[in-house]
Write a structure and sequence with these properties.
The chain is α+β, with helices and mostly antiparallel strands. It contains four helices and 27 strands.
């Protein structure tokens, strides 16, 4: 009897050991499964990833974000082939742009950050050149050497001007060092000549109006070019050195335009309603726009030629001159329709946006030819402003007035 009890006890203990072993084995498998699931979840949330270095010139946070979006925040270009004929260079608002002298490369400033960018329409590369934040640039005018005069607005809306230029990048810092020269307030405008050594400032004289002063870039050797009791003018410094000064335009407002030299002032057009002017460099050809409730554009091939009204309705401020062989041609953005009887006023204040087509103007023949239609050929509607043609005559750059994005059109067909 005792032997039977002992036998059954051993059997029970053996079964118990087997059950415990099976239980432990099941528990081990269960825990491994749970651990794998937790590790997968943690990895998905980024736990255990390598901590990024902050040695990047743009900061690891920005770089990590843009890496996920598929583009670079550094100044390393990505594109390697020629873009489409109509190319949106920069989607964010820009403050100003300029083709570099003798080149098809364009340099521009981003409006929110003040970063310098460069764009090559032959390869599609758009590297960022600088890493210095200059926030809230409202507008900028570029010179052919890549220097900009920029205006920022204070909290009270008062403009403040500065000159921005970049030096050469180094191997230790791929971003270009930037030089800032603050000019302060009390100015209506600042423009820099293509060589980057001379400037013109429009100085606010209070109730007595404005004076245009020519000087070195550092403000030395100033001389008065022009004074007026009228405060608001549009100034254009052509690449051949000529200076064009036109009263700020408005629908049905009489305006006059002058060519300024160090010793003389000659009128280009007098007492024209809604006057806008675009003069050609290295030529006496000129486009003259008017808005007396009906928008018109006329061309004069030279100083001795007759002014001829063109069969297009646009303002001269939507035009730019470029080279064509030994002569010049103009490219104008022409609204498909003009529904307003005060186009200039509405366009300036952003109450009206046009959908433009590019026309080519030959001044000698006074001929206008439709050249490119963004809606018809690219499926986009663009309100073009700040037009500029590259020195080789191959590219037309402009901003879309709707969102201030920068675009380039290849002009050959």
């Amino acid at each position: 009897m005792n032997r039977d009890v002992a036998y059954y006890i051993r059997i029970a203990l053996l079964v118990l050991v087997i059950l415990v072993a099976l239980g432990l084995a099941w528990w081990y498998v269960f825990l491994r499964g749970q651990s794998s699931a937790i590790e997968g979840s943690d990895e998905g949330r980024g736990l255990g990833a390598i901590i990024p270095s902050f040695s990047s010139g743009v900061g690891s946070t920005l770089q990590n974000v843009v890496d996920g979006l598929g583009f670079s925040a550094t100044n390393s270009p990505r594109a390697t082939k020629e873009p489409a004929r109509l190319w949106q260079v920069h989607t964010l608002p820009t403050a100003g742009h300029v083709f570099l002298t003798g080149s098809s490369t364009i340099r521009f400033l981003e409006r929110a950050t003040g970063y310098f960018f460069s764009a090559d329409p032959k390869t599609g590369t758009v590297p960022r050149l600088t890493n210095t934040l200059i926030p809230q640039i409202y507008e900028a005018h570029g010179a052919g050497n890549g220097t900009f005069s920029a205006v920022t607005l204070g909290q009270d809306g008062t403009p403040s001007y500065q000159i921005l230029s970049v030096d050469t990048a180094t191997s230790s810092n791929p971003f270009f060092p930037i030089t800032q020269q603050t000019l302060g307030r009390g100015l209506f405008g600042v423009w820099i000549h293509d060589g980057g050594t001379k400037m013109v400032t429009a100085v606010d004289n209070g109730r007595s109006g404005v004076t245009f002063v020519f000087s070195n870039l550092d403000g030395t050797n100033p001389s008065t070019l022009f004074s007026s009791i009228i405060n608001y003018w549009n100034f254009e410094w052509l690449r051949d050195g000529r200076m064009i000064l036109t009263e700020a335009a408005g629908t049905k407002i009489l305006g006059t335009s002058y060519e300024l030299t160090a010793n003389d002032t000659s009128a280009i057009a007098r007492r024209v309603e809604g006057l806008t002017v675009r003069a050609a460099a290295s030529s006496t050809a000129v486009l003259i726009g008017s808005d007396n409730g009906d928008v018109r554009l006329a061309v004069r091939a030279n100083t001795d030629a007759t002014l001829v009204t063109l069969p297009i309705r646009t303002t001269a401020e939507k035009c730019a001159w470029g080279k064509s062989g030994n002569g010049v041609v103009a490219y104008c953005a022409v609204p498909e329709t003009i529904s307003s009887s005060q186009f200039l006023n509405d366009w300036y204040r952003g109450a009206l946006h046009a959908s433009d087509t590019v026309w080519k103007i030959e001044p000698g023949a006074a001929r206008a030819e439709k050249w490119y239609s963004p809606p018809g050929e690219a499926g986009v509607s663009l309100d073009m402003e700040e037009l500029e043609v590259s020195d080789d005559g191959k590219y037309l750059a402009f901003r879309n007035a709707t969102d201030k994005s920068l675009w380039i059109l290849r002009l050959d067909k």
